[in-house]
């Protein structure tokens, strides 16, 4: 097998072999030596009707053989492609056998996921578009971008500098973490309501119905905003310019059709553009995001009500608001990013409603992220929640160490307080 892999030089390996390779921890496996992503697909012994109706997704035996043990080899869980189902009755035997039957939409999803990784590999570094997502965990005020055991803003700046040093198209890196956060909070980026409605026609109707049952129609979304009258942002994958509703001379070098000024930008698919037609909706979903060349940094949108962030964050039954779905569509359809880097533990994507493992098309982690490759720096002391990200958004988790502990000490005022407390206790 190793000789065959060396001669074939595959861009990726997809294996349906269960269990782990048996290699000792730290040793290379046969697939490791190929130097390409290895995807685990599940040929389940679970019956299809049970998988379809059960939120667990897989029976315990399938979970152990096809998910848990292959994780020891570092394989990327691409999803389940086949389940047990009844065959037609054999007229000679009068017997109806059970056999594995492919699940066409799951096969297509796995193919899309593998193709997305290959697309990422084959795109030159200078042309790769990345999205870096900063979690916005509901914690104390003033801790925007909080993650467990990680200084996220500083880490994001370090990642930007590292990417620039590796020839990625990164421009205008902020000087300080505070400067980065200020840019995000002041950003004026969004997905137009018209585009959300158009993009969402490709999503499962049952999932959209669940969102509407929980939050109402998209037109009633409380987070929608009116675009400024002078500039109407509209993220469109087919436009190569930003059109502004500013009166200019028709003979101006920046004049476009109808006298609207146009600022040329990259004609690549997925760039921001604008529309000036008067009949379209001017409402849009706002995102706290800003772009540095080909890298977009964003703070994670809320999945539910801002006032109930703590309760909603891990709710296994509450569908996300339209705004979070719009954010995923914006990344994939409008910006056309090649990969998502989620910095720090943990976000909300892997906790959205749906099956625990072996997701279906109606599971919200897949609805938001699609087949997008996800790289996830995650604290090594929390493997249980890292597994959630691996199994539900196919994340490649990169472990980082917890911060070292040190004595904080006391400042002068704290020393005074300590003495007063001691004196009071003695009195």
What order do the helices and strands come in, and which of them pair?
Elements: H1 2-8, E1 13-15, E2 38-47, H2 48-53, H3 60-71, E3 76-86, E4 98-102, H4 104-122, E5 130-134, H5 152-165, H6 177-185, E6 189-192, H7 193-199, H8 205-215, E7 225-226, E8 233-235, E9 241-247, E10 260-264, E11 272-274, E12 283-287, E13 289-292, E14 295-299, H9 309-313, H10 322-335, E15 339-342, H11 364-369, E16 374-379, H12 383-393, E17 395-400, H13 412-426
Parallel strand pairs: 1-2, 2-3, 5-14, 5-15, 15-16, 16-17
Antiparallel strand pairs: 3-4, 6-12, 7-12, 8-11, 9-10, 13-14
Helix pairs in contact: 5-6
Essential attributes:
alpha/beta; 13 helices; 427 residues; 2 domains; globular; 32% helix; six-stranded mixed β-sheet; four-stranded mixed β-sheet
Brief rundown of the structure:
It is built from 13 helices and 17 strands. By secondary structure, the chain is an alpha/beta fold. Helix 5 crosses helix 6.
What does this structure look like?
This protein is an alpha/beta fold and 427 residues long. The chain folds into two domains: 1-122, no CATH class; 127-227 and 282-403, no CATH class. It is built from 13 helices and 17 strands. Strands 13-14-5-15-16-17 form a six-stranded mixed beta sheet, sandwiched between helices. Strands 1-2-3-4 form a four-stranded mixed beta sheet. A three-stranded antiparallel beta sheet has the order 6-12-7. The longest helix is centred in the first third of the chain and has 19 residues, at 104-122. It is globular, with a radius of gyration of 25 Å.
């Amino acid at each position: 097998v190793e000789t065959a892999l060396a001669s074939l030089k595959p861009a990726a390996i997809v294996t349906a072999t269960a269990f782990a390779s048996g290699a000792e921890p730290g040793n290379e496996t046969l697939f490791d030596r190929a130097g390409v992503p290895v995807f685990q697909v599940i040929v389940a012994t679970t019956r299809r009707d049970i998988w379809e109706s059960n939120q667990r997704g897989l029976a315990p035996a399938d979970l152990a053989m096809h998910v848990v043990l292959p994780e020891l080899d570092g394989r990327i869980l691409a999803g389940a492609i086949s389940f047990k189902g009844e065959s037609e009755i054999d007229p000679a035997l009068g017997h109806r056998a059970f056999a594995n039957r492919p699940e066409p939409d799951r096969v297509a999803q796995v193919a899309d996921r593998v193709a997305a990784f290959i697309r990422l590999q084959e795109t030159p570094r200078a042309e790769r578009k990345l999205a870096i997502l900063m979690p916005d965990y509901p914690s104390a005020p003033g801790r925007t971008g909080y993650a467990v055991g990680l200084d996220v803003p500083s880490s994001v700046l370090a990642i930007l500098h590292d990417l620039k040093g590796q020839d990625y198209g990164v421009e205008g890196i902020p000087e300080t973490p505070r400067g980065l956060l200020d840019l995000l909070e002041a950003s004026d980026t969004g997905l137009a309501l018209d585009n959300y409605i158009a993009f969402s026609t490709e999503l499962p109707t049952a999932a959209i119905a669940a969102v509407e049952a929980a939050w109402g129609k998209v037109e009633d979304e409380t987070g929608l905003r009116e675009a400024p009258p002078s500039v109407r942002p509209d993220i469109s994958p087919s436009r190569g310019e930003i059109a502004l509703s500013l009166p200019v001379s028709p003979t101006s070098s920046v004049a476009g059709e109808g006298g609207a000024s146009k600022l040329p930008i990259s004609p690549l698919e997925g760039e921001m553009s604008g529309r000036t037609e008067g009949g379209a909706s001017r409402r849009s979903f706002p995102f706290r995001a800003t772009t540095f060349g080909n890298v977009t940094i964003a703070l994670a949108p809320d999945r539910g009500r801002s006032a109930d962030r703590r309760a909603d964050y891990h709710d296994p039954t509450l569908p996300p608001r339209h705004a979070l779905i719009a954010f995923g569509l914006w990344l994939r359809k409008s910006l056309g990013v090649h990969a998502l880097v989620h910095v720090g533990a943990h976000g909300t994507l892997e906790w959205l409603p749906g099956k625990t493992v072996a997701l279906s098309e109606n599971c919200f982690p897949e609805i938001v992220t699609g087949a997008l490759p996800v790289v996830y720096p995650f604290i090594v002391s929390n493997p249980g929640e890292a597994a959630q990200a691996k199994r539900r958004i196919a994340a490649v988790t990169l472990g980082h160490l917890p911060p070292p502990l040190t004595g904080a000490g006391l400042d002068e005022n704290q020393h005074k307080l300590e003495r007063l407390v001691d004196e009071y206790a003695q009195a």
